[in-house]
Write a structure and sequence with these properties.
The protein is of the alpha+beta class. It is built from two helices and seven strands, in the order H-E-E-E-E-E-E-H-E. It has a single domain, classed as CbiD-like.
């Protein structure tokens, strides 16, 4: 979420919020320093070191990079799998086959923060969002 917010903000303004604050489901508002920040033409990338808090998983401590690119008008948010993020290949998961293996809760949270950024800047939220975990399996 934090990397997505930072990348979209930089894409729209040319500046990265660093650290970037997000509101978590429990109402906490932590701020995360950026480990990666880069604007390349019509795309922006931001990365944070994931802190899984009191519910650590295999991604705790991993670098999570989100690349945001403007997409065609009316497309909404389109998720893509980058390095280290799988693609769903069989039915049975809560994500359709062919989609990046990003669970519904993180998808919803990323979508919400991107819509908030779009609203603040008076623009549509038509973006491609690629999530990467370099070195992930």
């Amino acid at each position: 979420m934090a990397a997505a917010k930072a990348a979209f903000t930089a894409l729209l303004t040319g500046r990265f919020p660093d650290p970037v604050a997000i509101v978590l489901p429990g109402g906490e508002t932590p701020a995360f320093p950026l480990a990666v920040k880069e604007v390349l033409g019509e795309t922006a990338r931001a990365g944070v070191i994931k802190d899984a808090g009191d519910d650590p998983d295999v991604t705790h401590g991993a670098l999570v990079i989100v690349r945001v690119r403007r997409f065609g008008g009316g497309s909404g948010i389109v998720f893509r799998a980058g390095e280290g993020v799988g693609t769903v290949t069989l039915p049975g998961l809560p994500v359709p086959v062919g989609e990046p293996a990003i669970n519904p809760a993180p998808r919803r949270m990323i979508s919400e923060v991107l819509h908030e950024v779009a609203k603040v800047h008076g623009t549509a939220c038509d973006v491609e969002v690629e999530v990467s975990i370099p070195g992930g399996h």
